[in-house]
Amino acid sequence: MKPYVYITRKLPEEIIKPLQQKYEVNMWEHEDIPVPKDILLLEAKKADALLTVLSDSIDERILTAGKNLKVVANLAVGFDNIDLKAASRGGIAVCNTPDVLTDTTADLTFGLLMATARRIVEAAEFVKEGKWESWSPLLLAGQDIHHKTIGIVGMGNIGETVAKRATGFDMNILYHNRSRKPEVEQRLGLAYASFDELVKKSDFIVCLTPLTAETKNMFTREVFKKMKKSAIFINASRGPVVDEQALYEALVAGEIVGAGLDVFEKEPINAGHPLLKLTNVVALPHIGSSSIETRVAMMQLCIDNIEAIIAGKEPKTLVNKDWMPLVKA
Ligand code: DGY
């Protein structure tokens, strides 16, 4: 019997064709509707491999149901949607898609910073809505980016690549991370700061830290209160790192100038959400890594990892380093 691979979201035919020659492949037929939990559970029971997306909750129930399950390949660098401990206990390898998305996600993050600072979305809508009546001295005047201080929270590969972008804008660069990165500090001219210091000194606070028990809700009302009144907050990591109500209150109270958000506490965010009513919020639908080239590379990496595990080889990008394969059917 061929190994069974279940893919939780519709992917392009040409991507999965090579898989279909070797394995039995089944795919959820929708591109933009998540697979219901009960179907995912049934599929996990049969599957040797799951190719998942970040909105699928791959919890203990799914993982223990997967009696033959050997690998979960998640189409994201983040893996907070997967219970890693349960996966390791079940001998299931968890793989993600780092590296291939680093530059693309850094581009989007810096683009979001620029859009928020220079009010690009608001200005574009202003023109399209026919509101432009004359040139005026302070029309849609935003904040400068060049020579300002950017504070990057989370100095992983994406953080480092955003810092590299910031050097091109002659920015003063602070960062906060669990561990210091002396080599990166030297190469890119970054200064390490405590979280408190970074929050107080930065003109742009850019959140790129993964979601963990420690980082959940790290941006509270107290934290926003410490920021400069002219500060702009950018989040391109995971929504739950921020207390969204606190962010809303800080924006309304004028404690910060604006926010650029690619991620939200609950995704997709409801169109009626109060944050979306604010003109100083630029909101994107979690598209950090979404260029065609990068998304295709991410899909390919998931497939490479699935193929490796099924063939009994080392996967390219294993997340649960304590994983030990169990003998399964
Ligand atoms: C990831 O890969 O974790 C990103 O959030 C996707 O854009």
From TrEMBL:
SUPFAM superfamilies the record matches:
Formate/glycerate dehydrogenase catalytic domain-like, NAD(P)-binding Rossmann-fold domains
Location of the D-isomer specific 2-hydroxyacid dehydrogenase NAD-binding domain: 110-288
Signal sequence bounds: none
Q: Which PROSITE patterns match?
A: D_2_HYDROXYACID_DH_1 (PS00065), D_2_HYDROXYACID_DH_3 (PS00671)
For this protein, the Enzyme Commission number is 1.1.1.-
Give the UniProt keywords, A-Z: Oxidoreductase
Matching InterPro entries = D-isomer_2-hydroxyacid_DH (IPR050223), D-isomer_2_OHA_DH_cat_dom (IPR006139), D-isomer_DH_CS (IPR029753), D-isomer_DH_CS1 (IPR029752), D-isomer_DH_NAD-bd (IPR006140), NAD(P)-bd_dom_sf (IPR036291)
Task: Give the GO molecular function terms.
Answer: oxidoreductase activity
Where in the numbering of this chain does the D-isomer specific 2-hydroxyacid dehydrogenase catalytic domain appear? Answer: 5-320
The source's domain of life comes to Bacteria
The record's PANTHER family line, in alphabetical order, gives: 2-HYDROXYACID DEHYDROGENASE-RELATED, GLYOXYLATE_HYDROXYPYRUVATE REDUCTASE B
Q: Which family does it belong to?
A: Belongs to the D-isomer specific 2-hydroxyacid dehydrogenase family.
The protein in question is named 2-hydroxyacid dehydrogenase
What does UniProt list as this organism's lineage? Bacteria, Bacillati, Bacillota, Bacilli, Bacillales
